């Protein structure tokens, strides 16, 4: 199978984080098309040998009871982060970050659900530990698929910041005896048309060969 180079390049260039979502809800088939892209992402074969039940997707509506419980865990994590910053003397080194962290800890975590749907991904870990790396593969696949479909996509790092992973596992019905890494994204229709990106912000080109 040959994938036309310009098509893939265009999707890579147009991928972006969208901050404003339309209130119109996505049909399940579009949500599941994005999830399928994540399901197809690479995984650590040695870690997950002899099993195919190591990757889980949870689709949560922002008006559901589950959404409120998720927000409680995020709010707890934000308060803990303020304490960590203070106890480790990080406020002097990163005053702006400390200021933002404190402000976020003092208000409800409504920013977790900026679209009608939040997708939480849980990747089971093992030895060697590769679950965090695999989450990156999953999120990138989903992000590119959403871009192809002209959907709005935004990574929700508040979920991966939850330190009480046991509470999150229990809430989602995952095996309490297993280790999981978590990430999440908001997905939906963009509030405004997504303009074509003319220039892509990227790091300075840096390649070094050792021959």
Description:
The protein has 211 residues and is an alpha+beta fold. It has a domain at 16-67 and 111-188: NADH Oxidase, CATH 3.40.109. Helices cover 41% and strands 13% of the residues. The chain has seven helices and four strands, in the order H-H-E-H-H-E-H-E-H-H-E. The protein has a four-stranded antiparallel β-sheet, with helices on both faces. The chain is globular and about 50 Å long. The chain starts with a helix and ends in a 23-residue tail after the last strand. The model has no long low-confidence stretch (mean pLDDT 93). Keywords: Flavoprotein, FMN, Oxidoreductase. GO terms for molecular function: oxidoreductase activity. Residues 13-188 form the Nitroreductase domain. It holds the Pfam family Nitroreductase.
